[in-house]
Amino acid sequence: MKNRALLVTISGYSNKLLESFDELEQLCLTLDFYIVDKIYQKKLKPDPNYYFGKGKLEKIKSFCYSNNINFLVINDNITSLQRKNIEKFLKIKVLDRTEIILEIFSKHAKTKEGKIQVEIAKLQYLLPYLVGYGKELSRLGGGIGTRGPGERQLEYSRRHIKNRIRSLKRQLENIKHIRELQRKKRLKSSITKISVIGYTNAGKSTLLSKLSGENLVAKNEMFTTLSPFTRKVKLPSNRIAIFSDTVGFISNLHPKIIEAFHSTLEEINYSDILLILVDSSDNNYEKKLETVFETLEKIGIYNKPYILVFNKIDLITSELLETIKNKYPYAIYISAKNNLNLNKLLLKIDEVIDKISKKVITTIKTNKMNILFKYSEQIKYNVLDSNSENIKIELYAPEKMIEKIIKEVNE
Ligand SMILES: Nc1nc2c(ncn2[C@@H]2O[C@H](COP(=O)(O)OP(=O)(O)O)[C@@H](O)[C@H]2O)c(=O)[nH]1
Ligand SMILES: [Mg+2]
Which among 24, 197, 239, 356 is least buried, having the fewest CB atoms inside 10 angstroms? Predict the structure, then answer.
């Protein structure tokens, strides 16, 4: 049974909270919530005790009761007093915007380090709420489960939680050097890795599923060991690349969870190429793009080749498209949903891989050609000349791959 959620917000000053209401819906869908309805109240400032006005809260209560709602999701960050009061009044679990975002980070955190960072962020964010209110810590551990509030009445002292945070931070220190080792190991693998990054709703998941749907690589063991966020795609050159769907950027992140967000993005370090996906129909796209670049800089990614991809061009006028094209002449313009220009994108990726690959011209014996076939998913070559014994080729491949091949053909 799905978690049935009611999404609520007040309008806020100049409707600020209404603007991010759709984004919240998108985030909840990512978490597999069934969204029963969205309700807002025209109100500038939240009530300090109950967030909503008392009348509105009564209405919410009867709505939740008659619609079997088990989660109230508020599009704002609430205080622990508000949280406690609303939960007591409605008798269902209340989640605020930052908690929803933290759940998404949990889902995306792949490395041990990422998982610990997210747990620390959760503890720090919910600390004032957890202290003394008898909340089960499982609220933090197993993600958003089906349990209601107050099932296991455990009391947590501030000291208890602070100790837990300290111990997690120690663990972080310890795994830092292990991570370095893993990183080296991963870098050895020569298959091209591509991370798709961008704001939530840009179309990252759609793009990934279209690419792998159109160019589905036959199911094999390699495929089944990939994470749910990863797809293998065959490029026009016949090379294979692995695409990863990364955690989406989200507007107005709470300062306490920014570090956790950055750690969730760390996998980008392991990729060879970035696809920066932009929703061209979003009025705020330029500011968002700027934030993406700033964030990459903050997490120490300066020199990775990237391809700028403007998505959803089916939703904008041709005038706007022309304007954007003039500003970003090197970008690729697609509609993931309508399969528009996806091949152009793949060709561009091939082009970039060629650029970051090394090129050598070498002559190999005809009977060693099978070695090239063996690695055909990771290399590209053109035959320049051949006779019955030798073939002269121009070979494009990552440096490590070239070394490997040269060694094998000369054995
Ligand atoms: N009109 C249009 N909608 C799109 C396109 N690509 C994605 N979408 C829609 O945009 C929404 C968000 O897409 P999703 O792939 O979940 O974005 P993500 O958050 O970046 O993974 C979904 O409703 C998609 O159907 C596109 O090219 N055109
Ligand atoms: Mg997605």
Answer: 356
Residue 280 CB less than 6 A away from ligand 1 = no
If you measure from the C-alpha of residue 3 to the centroid of ligand 2, how many angstroms do you get, rounded to a whole number?
19
Give the rounded percent of residues in the chain with a pLDDT score beyond 70: 87
Q: Which atom of ligand 1 is nearest to the CA of 199?
A: 20
pLDDT computed for residue 55 by the predictor: 93
What are the pLDDT digits (tens) for 210-227? 998 744 444 443 444 456
Decide yes or no: CATH 3.40.50.11060 for domain 4-108: yes
Q: Which is more confidently placed, 368 or 179?
A: 368
Q: How far is CA 38 from CA 10, 51, 278, in A?
A: 11, 16, 26
| C-beta 250 within 6 A of ligand 1 | no
Distance CA 234, CA 214 (A): 9
Q: Read off the pTM.
A: 0.80
